[in-house]
Amino acid sequence: MTQVQHSGSEHRVHVAIIGAGIGGLATAVALSKAGLHVEVFEQVRRFKRVGAGLQLAPNATAALHGLGLLTAVRATASRPTAWRSYDAHTGTVTREESLGDDIARRYGTPYLHIHRGDLHDVLADAARAVCTVHRGRRLTGLTMAGEQVHLSFEDGGRAHADAVIGADGIHSTVRGVIFGGTRPRFSGMVAYRGLIPRERIDRLGVGPEAAKWWGEDRHLVHYWVSGGAELNYVAPIPATEWTEESWTAAGSIADLVAALDDFVPQVGWLVAQTGALMRSALYDRDPLLRWTADRVTLLGDAAHPMLPFMAQGSAMALEDAAVLSRCLQGVAADELPAALTRYERARIARTGAIQAGSRANTFLRSARAGTKSLTVQEVYAYDPWRVPLSGATS
Ligand SMILES: Cc1cc2nc3c(=O)[nH]c(=O)nc-3n(C[C@H](O)[C@H](O)[C@H](O)COP(=O)(O)OP(=O)(O)OC[C@H]3O[C@@H](n4cnc5c(N)ncnc54)[C@H](O)[C@@H]3O)c2cc1C
Questions:
Q1: Residues contacting 283, CB < 8 A, separation 6+
Q2: Is this model's pTM higher than 0.85 or not?
């Protein structure tokens, strides 16, 4: 029987989101704005400024714009003027894309770079204003019983909801319970992530462009974050022996300089100025054929973890949030399984193509198009608030 929404004492659809990362918080804001009753359950007790930079292409900033958060995000973001690809051995430019005003004119919203901590702060403030965000609540179990999903937590607590969104990252507990626990796939690469205070490299004259220095089996990408106060870089390097995945493990500057010793000298000079250096092994997973089961679905890295080589991980989570909220707006509790399947159908082909493109690591390398399956235009022009919900079953 269909229940009427948002009126007086009648049942308001209650959704539990597991994980208060980028995707979970964006989803909390989007679903609350769509009129649902939302609770978020996050395992960490305190949010800390962990990690480094994220790239927000126009498809990601379109998602944030629709949440009403683009102005707040811009306050701490940097806006690159261009994207430049270099042959790392010769310093020759192999591709240049104008970003700045040009890309904002073409797609409607800007290309931005931001520290993950700054984006997380904006999303967490916005989510706390519209729903409850529980911290220190690590999900350990989940069962479906009739029209309810029951949740259990490490602290012994329990909760239930009409539907559950697993936004709990690449090692998703929700995914493990619903689809079976498998290990992510080690890529054979370790990513060094560094932050360099601007004053240390003023004399090197690093411009406002984002740059990617391409070697044969390794590369280094750099761009400004923290409102231009820090240069962020990511350098994936082949590795077989070190497989720890971590957002806090320290890296050695000397090891990284040695790993890039056949790159043009200015890359090594930059790295030598690093303030904080982290390192983490890179993992992804093969695309899932389904990620919804009855009243439970997945979102962001829980559904489609990808290598960072197209810089679309956060963007896909933000797009998911927008599309999911469109699919759930106005639905009754007994319509949730169909609405969640509709969301999955609307998203699965695109996110699978971006997972594959990220593995291929050819996006923006040279003057030819983006990846085998997606052009730059197709990646950036996607507005999750307007895109037809095609592929959807209703
Ligand atoms: C601390 C941290 C730092 C990061 N730094 C960077 C970075 O510098 N650059 C970059 O490109 N990407 C970074 N990432 C990854 C990036 O945020 C994601 O790849 C992308 O934004 C997709 O977001 P997501 O919400 O799907 O996953 P995530 O942002 O990874 O969020 C998942 C959330 O779920 C929570 N969680 C996990 N298991 C449970 C559970 N059982 N119960 C409750 N909560 C749970 C986690 O604590 C986390 O808050 C970082 C992720 C984290 C968690």
A1: 170, 184, 185, 186, 187, 245, 305
A2: yes
Take residue 327 and report the two structure tokens written for it: 């699919």
- Residues assigned a catalytic role: 223
Cα pseudo-dihedral 204, 205, 208, 211, rounded to 10 = -50
Q: Which of 96, 71, 98, 76 is nearest to 85 (CA)?
A: 96
Give me Rg for the CA atoms of the chain: 21
Ligand 1 atom having least distance to the Cα of 247: 3
Q: How far is Cα 157 from Cα 273, in angstroms, rounded to an integer? A: 47
Residue 125 Cα, ligand 1 centroid: separation in angstroms?
Answer: 17
Q: Using CA atoms, how far apart are residues 112 and 8, in angstroms rounded to an integer?
A: 42
Residue 167 Cα, ligand 1 centroid: separation in angstroms? 9
Q: Where are the alpha helices (DSSP H) in the chain?
A: 22-33, 58-66, 70-74, 100-107, 116-130, 173-179, 198-201, 253-259, 265-272, 313-328, 336-360, 376-380
pLDDT of amino acid 2 = 34
In the structure encoding, which two tokens stand for residue 192, read together? Answer: 């060094």
pLDDT in tens, 169-222: 999 999 999 998 788 999 999 999 999 999 999 888 899 999 999 999 999 999
Q: Is ligand 1 within 6 A of the CB of residue 154?
A: no
